[in-house]
Amino acid sequence: MHIFPKERTLRVAVVKNILDANTRIAQENRKLFDTHGLTVINLMSSPGAGKTTLLEQMGARFEGELKIGVIEGDIQTSLDAERVAAAGLEAVQIETDGACHLDANMVQNALSGLNLDTLDLVVVENVGNLVCPAEFKIGEDCKVMMLSVTEGDDKPYKYPLMFKESNVLLISKVDLLPYLHCDIEKIKEAARSINPDLIIFEISAYSGQGLDDWHSWIQEQTAKK
Amino acid sequence: MHIFPKERTLRVAVVKNILDANTRIAQENRKLFDTHGLTVINLMSSPGAGKTTLLEQMGARFEGELKIGVIEGDIQTSLDAERVAAAGLEAVQIETDGACHLDANMVQNALSGLNLDTLDLVVVENVGNLVCPAEFKIGEDCKVMMLSVTEGDDKPYKYPLMFKESNVLLISKVDLLPYLHCDIEKIKEAARSINPDLIIFEISAYSGQGLDDWHSWIQEQTAKK
Predict the structure, then answer these.
(1) B151 in contact with A at a CB cutoff of 8 Å?
(2) Is the pLDDT of residue A5 over 50?
(3) Contact check, Cβ <8 Å, A173/B150
(4) What CA–CA distance (Å, rounded) separates B183 from A216?
(5) Min distance B151 CA to chain A CA atoms (Å)
């Protein structure tokens, strides 16, 4: 989140108002999701970690089994919504027009674009940003973050809030490990030092590695509702 | 940058104050850099695109030729400052404690940690974030952004401000292209559609590919001062 060193007092007041308002709208979203028996995942990562490719895989895997809706958050373009719609998922795009994260209000406004009565699962694909999205609840059941092995094994220490706030860590693009200077054990160790409860899956949305475990976890979450 | 839909009027007033204050401090920084005959680069990218590895390479290449100082911006840790110091560069670390970008005030405060009289070039390695850092001038001569080919070829369209604000685009990790579904020509075409004046280098800080051209460009910039 932005901090404003020269206007610190003002900043504190403004940010508190913003986060209070966000929490209130997130609670409204939460009630609506419960009414519809929906499981809602807030999916977050740096740009290009593989969120949309994973959603395409989930569309193929759960066809005829789970009805999945996707809220796509991007600063500009509807490229991702087009991709997941082509993969058979119900999709709505939020263009944030510069904003670096989705908040509860943006998600609330997007919900009219989905048929909540018929869906089992909604995945909110947040703006590609490893910092700001971690601060804003949207009414989700769980926060799932993705870190690509191409980003390096020091990232949990450098971006701790995202790892602290998330319930699940998907370590993605593991098919590229042979070509990288990245120790996946160091990622897991660092992530768990920040958040010992983190559930971790190692996946590749291209090779399919690890997706069975991830999909089983999704089935468990939707079965609870 | 964060937007606050429920407090839009307040937000406009606050953001204007912040950006005005930032511009004023950036101008102060600019004057100080000119007094010392310094070239200053604001280096920005997503997390893990390879900024620090490039700085390590520059330390080796310019040893005995250019004196380079680095201001490292990270949310937490001094890992990057330690890396570039080990590569022979003069380094100072800013821990932003949550902030998603560096601003002119943070850079001004960090300058006392460098011997400006003896340096030729200062590189400010911004917080890993493809969104927010693009909005804040810090008094730099030029903005250099890095995009790793692992992030995919659709990123210029999705994160246009960074491409629009930058003078130089470093397309990094090109040694990984054989293993990826990424068309580097699409990256260049998209980037130039947003910013026709963008200077583009294709590099790999591991294999060394393209670094000679980048280093020549650095020499040209420092020779101007």
Answers:
(1) yes
(2) no
(3) yes
(4) 33
(5) 4
* CATH, domain A6-224, list 3.40.1050.10, 3.30.390.30, 3.40.50.300, 3.40.50.970: 3.40.50.300
Rg, C-alpha atoms of chain B? 17
Give the residue carrying structure tokens 């992030």: B151
In this predicted complex, what is the ipTM? 0.91
> How many whole angstroms separate alpha carbon B122 and alpha carbon A215?
48
Locate the domains of chain B by residue range: 6-224
Digit-coded pLDDT (tens) for B104-148: 999 999 999 999 999 999 999 999 999 999 999 999 999 999 999
Q: With contacts defined as CB-CB under 8 Å, which chain B residues touch A46?
A: 46-48, 128, 130, 151
Chain A partners of B57 at a C-beta cutoff of 8 Å? none
Reported for A195-198, long-range contacts at CB under 8 A and 24+ positions apart, including other chains, are: A195/A163, A195/A164, A195/A166, A197/A167, A198/A163, A198/A166, A198/A167, A198/A168, A198/A169
- B194 interfaces chain A, CB cutoff of 8 Å: no
Q: Please, which residues 174-193 of chain B have a Cβ atom closer than 8 Å to chain A?
A: 175-176, 179-181
Query: Any idea which residue has 């911004």 for tokens?
Result: B126
For CA atoms B134, B140, B143, B144, give the dihedral sign: negative
Banded model confidence at residue A4, pLDDT cuts 50, 70, 90? very low
Judge: A47–B48 Cβ closer than 8 Å, yes or no: no
* Helix, strand, coil share (%) of chain A residues, nearest 5: 50, 20, 35
**Which H or E element spans position A145?**
strand A142-148
Buried residues in A7-20 as b, exposed as e (16+ CB within 10 A): eeeebeebbeebbe
Q: What is the pLDDT of residues B179-209, one digit of tens each?
A: 999 999 999 999 999 999 999 999 999 999 9
Are the C-beta atoms of residues B201 and B213 closer than 8 Å to each other? Answer: yes
Q: In this complex, do B75 and A158 lie within 8 Å of one another by their Cβ atoms?
A: yes
- Name beta bridge partners: A56: none
Min Cα distance A111 → chain B (Å) is 16
**Terminal CA-to-CA distance of chain B, rounded, Å?**
33
Spatial contact of B165 and B134, defined as CB atoms under 8 Å apart? yes
**Residue count of chain A:** 225
Contacts with A106 from chain B: Cβ below 8 Å: 5
Rounded CA-CA distance B145/B67 in Å is 22
